[in-house]
Design brief:
The complex is a heterodimer of chains A (about 120) and B (about 120).
Chain A (H helix, E strand, L loop, with lengths): L4 E3 L2 E4 L5 E6 L6 E8 L3 E9 L2 E5 L6 E5 L5 E5 L8 E8 L11 E2 L3 E5 L1
Parallel strand pairs in A: 2-11
Antiparallel strand pairs in A: 1-3, 3-8, 4-5, 4-9, 5-6, 7-8, 9-10, 9-11
Chain B lengths: L2 E3 L4 E5 L4 E3 L2 E3 L4 E8 L5 E7 L5 E3 L5 E5 L4 E6 L8 E9 L8 E2 L3 E6 L1
Classes of the chains: A mainly beta (about 120), B mainly beta (about 120).
Amino acid sequence: KAGVTQTPRYLIKTRGQQVTLSCSPISGHRSVSWYQQTPGQGLQFLFEYFSETQRNKGNFPGRFSGRQFSNSRSEMNVSTLELGDSALYLCASSLGWTSGDYNEQFFGPGTRLTVL
Amino acid sequence: AQSVAQPEDQVNVAEGNPLTVKCTYSVSGNPYLFWYVQYPNRGLQFLLKYITGDNLVKGSYGFEAEFNKSQTSFHLKKPSALVSDSALYFCAVRKAKTNAGKSTFGDGTTLTVKP
């Protein structure tokens, strides 16, 4: 099975711009989660989607949004970029169950976003 | 609220020696516990998990972890470290029967294995 893929791998933007990151989960996985990883803050949860619905959301401003398509692919969007948004954005997929998911997550390689 | 603590930012061991990376957690009810490893410029890779059953869990690359409910710990161990084990290790917890997005990750421990 192919792993989790994320595009693009690297991105350079300037303050005030917006960006869209894409994630394709492992085939058959229905849950997709997004994380922001920075040296100072560690791994911060952004949101989780399951069956095209946002199930959980972290403590990020409304500039961060996401969506999931019927094929489980997911996108996240960051509007009005700030310098502090520079980070590695990781996507993770898991099988996902409506009654609770005991499965591990499979992570993509990440998108390295640099905001100048 | 749930939390994970990895008390050591850095662990250094010599190749061939046993290694331990510590993790303690706090969660209401039964926990699901996970260990992941991250190599430079890569995403996290799953190592092992505790869901229920035996307290000693064996995972990938010769790693194992012991679930200790009374001490709320889930330390990662390996009997003989390899230089290639050098990486960033994350412990994660979530309450049983909750979805992946409810996971809380520790801040990570950098393991350095010296030849």
